[in-house]
Amino acid sequence: VQLVSELRRGIERGELRLFAQPIVDRHRRVLGEEGLIRWRSPERGLIPPDEFIPLAEQTGMIIEIGEWVLDQACRQLAVWARDPATQHLTLSVNLSERQLRERDFAEQVRDRMDHYGVPAGKLKFELTESVLNTDLDRTIRLLSLLRADGVLTSLDDFGTGYSSLSYLRQLPVQQLKIDQSFVDTVVDNAQTAAVITMIVQLGRAFGLHVVAEGVETEPQFQRLAELGVDAFQGFLFSKPRPISEV
Ligand code: G
Ligand code: G
Ligand code: MN
Ligand code: NA
C-alpha cells in the first residue's frame, strides 16, 4: 500500500526514467534500442520495473505510465530522426495487456507520433504471447491498424507462453524475440539449439525478424548467429543505460 502511494507521487514528481538497451546485428551494428523503464525514488533509489510494473498493472497506474513511456519514446525517435548518425534506429516499447485493451489505444499512438513527427517503421511494440489469450480478433485488428500507421510489433519472451503456434499465421507481427531462458543454455544443450533452429525456421517461413535477448557471452553470440538468428540483445553488447546516452 505504501509503495502504491509512493509510486503515484513518484509519477507526479517526474521520477520515472527511460533506459534503453541496444539490439545489434551479427556485425554488432546497432539496429535499434529497447526502452526499459526505471523509477528513481529519492527514498529507495533506482527501482527496476519488476518491482513496480505488476503493482502498476493491478492498480491501473500502468495506463498513465504507459502513456508517459509512449510520449518519451516518440519524442526520442523524433530527435534521432534529425541526426544522420541515429536516424536508422528503431525503438521498442514494452506494452502491458491492459494498455492494449484501452479503447482508444491506436488513436493515442497516432496522436503522439503526429505530435512529434515520428517516421514510419521506427516505433515497435513488444507484446508477450499472453495478450493473445483473450480476444484474438480484436488484437489482430488493433495490430493491423498500428501497422498501417507505421508501427511494428514484436512477440517478446517467445517460446515461453502457452499460445498455439496457429495464431502466428493470422497475427500481424514482424518480429520474434527468443526468450533469454533459451539463450542461457544454447551453447551446451542440443535440445535448446533445436528449439532455436525451429524458431528461426518459423521466422523465415513467416517473414519475421528473429532476435535473441539476454546474450551475455561471446560463445552464445556465435552459436546464435550460426543457428541463423538475425539480431542480438544483452549485457555482452551493453547494459541498459539512460536513453539520453544512446
Ligand atoms: O529492464 P528489466 O530487464 O529489469 O525489465 C523487467 C521487465 O519489465 C521486463 O519484462 C520488461 O518487459 C518490463 N518493462 C520494462 N519497461 C517497461 C515498460 O515501459 N512498460 C511495461 N509494461 N513493461 C516494461
Ligand atoms: O521486456 P523483457 O522481459 O524482455 O525485458 C528484458 C529484461 O532483461 C530487462 O529487465 C533487461 O534489463 C534484462 N536483460 C537484458 N539483457 C540481459 C542480459 O544479458 N542478461 C540478463 N540476465 N538480463 C538481461
Ligand atoms: Mn521486452
Ligand atoms: Na523478453
From TrEMBL:
Residues 1-246 form the EAL domain. Coiled coil: none annotated. This is EAL domain-containing protein. It comes from the Bacteria.
